[in-house]
Amino acid sequence: MDALVEKLSRLGLIRMAENREPKSQAASRLRSLLALCNAGVLEGGLSVALDVRPDELIGPLAIAIGNAGLELKVIDTRDEPRPEITVRLRSLERKWTVASLDALVTHLNELFHADPAAKAIAILGEYEDALQLWAVDKALLGELLGEDFFRPRNRKQLTKLAHTHTSC
To answer: pLDDT (tens digit, 9 = 90+) per residue, 13-51?
Structure first.
């Protein structure tokens, strides 16, 4: 088995089929997180078409975040004069400018930063005409950030999240 797949399997981050083998036989041939995510093998991975709008992705991301993410409600979306989403989480209401999917991920990670049970979203990058995102347990972020294979576009934000949850 490839070292990357072996490491991810050990951390419980590779989806398993019912016979406890990696979901895809191709998993051992895939050499990057991007390829694993795109193939649907990465636990918590989401492969998103590049033309998906932030208001279309917020639901699947809230589900991937889990825990309090499941309580997130979209109150309003607007395109003009700029793309905005208004959300409510319990009694907290926020209005975000979301010109891109990256901006949406940033806002969601900030909203759930203090919730250790909510997963963080890593922006892995683009692969085969899709944006590859990964919902990761915050407890694993520190270890993943030390790995050469983990090079998310939002590394700085994830590093802050990792430090917040290892110093608690």
So the answer is: 998 754 445 544 555 556 789 999 999 999 999 999 999
165 occurs within a structural domain: no
- Reading the block at residue 59, the tokens are 């639901």
Q: Considering the domain boundaries, does residue 168 fall inside one?
A: no
- Rounded CA separation 129/117 (Å): 31
Domain with 145 in it:
3-156
* Stated pTM of the model: 0.90
**What is the C-alpha to C-alpha distance for residues 51 and 21, in angstroms, rounded to an integer?**
33
Provide DSSP, 8-64.
HHHTT-B-B-TTSSBS-GGGGG--SHHHHHHTT-BTTEEEEETT--HHHHHHHHHHH
167 within a domain of the structure (yes/no)? no
The tokens describing 127, both together, are 């692969």
How far separated are the first and last CA of the chain, in Å rounded? Answer: 35
- Residue 98 resides in a domain: yes
Number of domains in the chain: 1
CB neighbour class for 54 (10 Å; exposed up to 12, middle 13-18, buried from 19) = buried
* Alpha-carbon dihedral 137, 142, 148, 151, rounded to 10 degrees: 60
For 49-91, how does the pLDDT look when each residue is reduced to its tens digit (9 = 90+)? 999 999 999 999 999 999 999 999 999 999 999 999 999 999 9
